[in-house]
Inverse folding.
């Protein structure tokens, strides 16, 4: 295992966040930049969905991953050579509100965007798997290679929730993207499992070979196998983040009221990624239900200020 390094980074937090002193106990004073909390009038506006804005140039794109499975996405062509690739989260799809809103906002800025379904999700082929972290990294690689072959530049990759993990893992393996945005990714992948599967999940999955996750009505939503569970438990975000290039700019955005992944995970990313900026959105939940506009207002300047894609 690599040795953790505390590197310089820009940290942007709302002032009210600092009443929770436990979050900052491991951060030095020169690593924190204070900003005023947004006023109530701004927060009221964040409930307006940016997906209401008309998108004039959309094209469904189908490409193959390295396993011969078809990946389906929607390309928002703003006429630019630069493309931002958007990655959805766990059991989600390209139709997720956050993915839709980012696509519309980027196109308004003259930046093309591509949102797609990982294999086993949405319209893409393949079987859904509980883990699949590095396999989804390879799905993303297939998308990057597709657009490079089409004479486009990938100026940034953005992922929400599990998608945030995927873009960081991608940056640790392929050093060809200059701008990476991690929106509410999980740092410690051994956490959050008991909430879904129960405290005795390891004993049950070793005994039965799998766990079926059911809905309230008793329908099986998905199956967690031993292999997919170990895929998740053996994916080490700490070691991966340590090998992200210093030239790669990384932005982590997290909601202070995230009910799925604790905000402490965002602070852990900030401490080990060399070229990193962290922004905490006060009051935002995991889905940024009432903070979609604020989320895009944080991410868009980061993309626009960054260098062009590495390819």
């Amino acid at each position: 295992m690599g040795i953790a390094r505390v590197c310089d980074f820009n940290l942007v937090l709302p002032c009210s966040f600092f009443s929770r002193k436990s979050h900052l106990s491991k951060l030095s004073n020169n690593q924190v930049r204070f900003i005023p909390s947004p006023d109530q009038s701004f927060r009221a506006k964040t409930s307006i969905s940016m997906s209401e804005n008309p998108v004039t140039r959309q094209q469904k794109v189908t490409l193959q991953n390295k396993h011969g499975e078809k990946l389906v996405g929607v390309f928002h062509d703003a006429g630019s050579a630069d493309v931002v690739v958007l990655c959805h989260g766990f059991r989600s799809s390209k139709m997720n509100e956050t993915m839709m809103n980012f696509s519309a906002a980027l196109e308004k800025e003259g930046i093309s965007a591509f949102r797609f379904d990982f294999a086993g999700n949405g319209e893409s082929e393949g079987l859904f798997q509980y883990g699949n972290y590095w396999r989804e990294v390879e799905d993303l690689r297939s998308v990057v290679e597709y657009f490079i072959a089409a004479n486009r530049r990938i100026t940034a990759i953005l992922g929400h929730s599990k998608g945030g993990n995927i873009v960081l893992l991608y940056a640790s393996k392929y050093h060809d993207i200059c701008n990476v945005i991690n929106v509410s990714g999980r740092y410690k992948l051994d956490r959050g499992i008991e909430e879904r599967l129960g405290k005795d999940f390891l004993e049950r999955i070793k005994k039965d070979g799998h766990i079926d996750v059911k809905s309230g009505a008793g329908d099986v939503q998905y199956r967690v196998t031993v292999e997919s569970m170990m895929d998740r438990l053996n994916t080490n975000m700490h070691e991966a983040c340590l090998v992200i290039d210093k030239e790669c700019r990384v932005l982590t955005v997290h909601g202070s009221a995230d009910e799925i992944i604790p905000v402490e995970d965002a602070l852990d990313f900030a401490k080990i990624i060399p070229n990193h900026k962290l922004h905490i959105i006060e009051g935002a939940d995991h889905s940024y239900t009432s903070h979609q506009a604020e989320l895009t207002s944080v991410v868009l300047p980061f993309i626009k200020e960054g260098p062009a894609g590495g390819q």
